[in-house]
Amino acid sequence: MKDIITFLRELQQNNNREWFMANKPRYTALQIQFNNFVDELIGEISRFDDTVTGLTAKDCTYRIYRDVRFSADKSPYKTHMGAFICPGGKKSGYSGYYFHLSTGGEGYPYGHMLATGDYCHDPKALQIIREDIAGGEGDFDSIVRSVSPTFMLDYDSALKRNPKGFEHETAYAEYLRLKAFCLVHTPSTEFMCAPDLARRTAELFHRTQPFLHYINRAIEYSKEEQ
After folding, report:
1. Rounded percentage of the chain residues whose pLDDT exceeds 70
2. 3-class DSSP state for residue 200?
3. First-residue to last-residue Cα distance in the chain
4. How far apart are CA 85 and CA 97, in angstroms?
């Protein structure tokens, strides 16, 4: 991954079409390298989570070109490479495991990231997740605590008050206020350059599987209700 990180750092300093086109052959080679890694990571995750068995990098990766139509930042290229490994592929609507390789800076999108869950849930699924938590007698809390502090819930978009339909004094209100159910870990560049990265990454994701199962169970139920 070291060569990819170096390329992304150079792209960050030269985020324009002229530089990118001059380095397109280099990018193409690194993209193949990244996709091969994603295929390896899918294989490692499949050892403990058969819901992603059969996926390929093509089902999980993204284009490097940014959609700048509604953005004040008109930089044409992303300075990260990511893969969202979930049942049915990235467009299925299910939550999954996200691998994010970037420049090694601070914060999203510049920092490296491993995440389990999703940042955008269907309203019906979100309601079911909250109902499960409210009536689950602490089972969701136990799952979250089992992976802390390696993975932490993302509270950035959380509501300030309990959502409609849930009393103010409801148990585990901190979870009910979440709009995105996502566990996040920020690995170091040293970790991301490890020769056995796929295996080590899968070991970390394995710890989050109960969380993902909890979320995808609600999503599955919401799909059946449609």
Report:
1. 100
2. helix
3. 42
4. 5
User: Measured on CA atoms in the order 204, 178, 78, 8, is the torsion positive or negative?
Assistant: negative
- pLDDT given for residue 226 in this prediction: 62
CA distance 173 to 160: 10
Contacts of 124 (CB under 8 A, 6+ apart): 222, 225, 226
Give the separation between CA 186 and CA 206, rounded to whole angstroms.
16
**Domain tally, the chain:** 1
pTM for this structure?
Answer: 0.95
Cα 146 to Cα 53, 78, 125, 127: the distances in Å are 25, 34, 23, 24
Which residues lie below 8 Å from residue 175, measured CB to CB, with a gap of 6+?
130, 133, 140, 141, 144, 153
Q: What are the backbone angles phi and psi of residue 59, rounded to the nearest 5°? A: -75, -15
Distance, CA of 31 to CA of 164 (rounded, Å): 45
pLDDT tens by residue, 27-75: 999 999 999 999 999 999 999 999 999 999 999 999 999 998 988 889 9
Structure-token pair, residue 127:
């309601």
Please name the residue that has the structure tokens 């930089």: 75
Domain that holds residue 67: 2-225
